[in-house]
Amino acid sequence: MVHESVQRAVSPQQLSIPPRNGIRAIGHLKRGAKFRLLGTGPERIAKDGRGVVNERNWPGTHRFAASGIHRPRTIDDLRRLVAKAEKIHAVGARHSFNGVADSPGALVDLAGLPPRCEIDAARRTVTVDAGACYGRVAAELQARGWALHNMASLPQVTVIGAVATGTHGSGDGNGTLSSAVAGLEVVTAAGDLVTMRRGDAGFDGMVVGLGAFGIVTAVTLDIRPSFLVRQDAFAGLPWSAALTDLGRIMAAAYSVSIMTKWSGPTLGRLWLKTLVVDGMPEAVSYPGAHPAPTVGERADEAVFRRTVFGTVGPWSERLPHCIPDEEPGHPDQIQSEYMLPRGQAMKALALLRDMGTRIDPHLRVTEIRSMAADALWLSPAYGHDAVALHFTWLKEPEPVAKLTAEIEEMLLPLGARPHWGKLMHASAAQLAPLYPRLAAFRELSTAWDPAGKFRNDFLDRHVFG
Fold this sequence. Notes:
Helix content is 22%, strand content 22%. The chain is an alpha+beta fold. The chain has a domain at 228-429: Alpha-Beta Plaits. Strands 11, 12, 13, 14, 15, 16, 17, 18 and 19 form a 9-stranded antiparallel β-sheet that branches. Helix 6 (239-250) runs antiparallel to helix 8. The longest helix is centred in the last third of the chain and has 15 residues, at 397-411. The protein is globular, with a radius of gyration of 21 Å.
């Protein structure tokens, strides 16, 4: 529900939108200790105060430059805080590997706001609070017979942070996590609380919003009836299969991931997450590959403690890759990711395979996934189906920076879009040809935030130029 008691009247002329309300409140979920947000342990939490906060992202690769961090307990508190601030930005699970969530002024952590999990069965939507992580939301939906269409690999990340950076799961027919957003509740630069819904002017530009429009306090997502999935792992598939017919592999299940390095003769592991309807299929196979033991037996594959393989389970326990109540592996890592038009993916694989002997010594694992096209302006899948190439690197900043700069230079001409929340190098000028609506995004965000209250170094470098 929109917080009508605190919502200040805002005219359509002021914001170029029609503010509306009326989201139905069905119930609330008590926040439990089970679901951990990345990077929020006591050792990473700084007190408010003057000077630079002692706040870092989950792997410790980015130290926030903000002068203070606030943790409001109510929407009213947040509105007053935002209205008074000169510079401010929201921070979530701290899983971004760059400064997208930083601020030259203050940070605001929304984990202390009242929890919400409001299901509207008629509209098939759920509205959740800004501190909600995917693990908590998925467990509540599953308990009540509902589901999201897809999940991030890490259930510890916040829903709002994931959708704001264009994060995705996998599946040829599945849109990004952002594509499920049906509504946003936003505190604007003036401290107004505004509700935006799918179909409103500018909505498609605000979903993958990078924090540039305001502080998002709640998000409404499309839901569907709960479903069952089985997860199976395979090994031994030759690299030639991916280089000649990647599309066949990626279409093999509801959600497909290839976990691999680049220089060996075979792909590391093929993960198939298959829909189970009326008990079928009872078993899953893939031509040219053999069943693999649970991934993670080798040290170079131990990226996370994984969800269960070889058995049927609810979507909430099979679509994410790791268990929600534990740290997803060692934080000594750096991540980068590039989303390519599906038709360019095999060319990109061939180029990267040629670099394989230089990449692998610094790499934990690469994950290859796919996603369906959408119309969200800064989405990695805007305008076309996409294949994602995700790199989990060793925590070796200098060699990784050199390799990722080289990889970006090689892949950008193929239409690759770097993930907004990962290590990236491209300037706004280099990214502009890849995002046809980037200029419109700049114009819309400036209309919402003319003084640049939510702007930061990341946005200045990679979006506004």
